[in-house]
């Protein structure tokens, strides 16, 4: 009986309940993810669940930043690796803040894509 309870507790600890807080204060989730889930996969989940009525939704994983316990999470890390012992209570819901980087404006794209010209200033004495 005790080994069954231990296995149930271990499987619960391998799962995390996460909700994603958008900049307007609304939430996506909560949803349960395995602790081995990558941050990139979490971002894909945010993109897939993004409310259709909201403007300027993210299109790619690169458009999304997830912040948990004041830290920007790296795509190659797992949810378990990003856990904060101070902020993430076992069995509780972890809130991650979502920041969407807007795509560059057309004018900015042109400036970025234009080749740089080398300019020389000559001073004649």
From TrEMBL:
Highest rank taxon of the organism: Eukaryota
Transmembrane segments: none
Domain Ubiquitin-like: residue ranges: 16-82
Key words of the record: Cell membrane, Lipoprotein, Membrane, Methylation, Palmitate, Prenylation
Pfam name, any one: Rad60-SLD_2
Principal place of residence: membrane
Subcellular location: Cell membrane
InterPro entries tied to this protein: MUB, Ubiquitin-like_dom, Ubiquitin-like_domsf, UBL3-like, UBL3-like_ubiquitin_dom
Topology of the protein relative to the lipid bilayer: Lipid-anchor
PANTHER family named among the record's database cross-references: MEMBRANE-ANCHORED UBIQUITIN-FOLD PROTEIN 2, UBIQUITIN-LIKE PROTEIN 3 HCG-1 PROTEIN
Known role: May serve as docking site to facilitate the association of other proteins to the plasma membrane.
Protein name: Membrane-anchored ubiquitin-fold protein
Native source organism of the sequence: Hibiscus sabdariffa
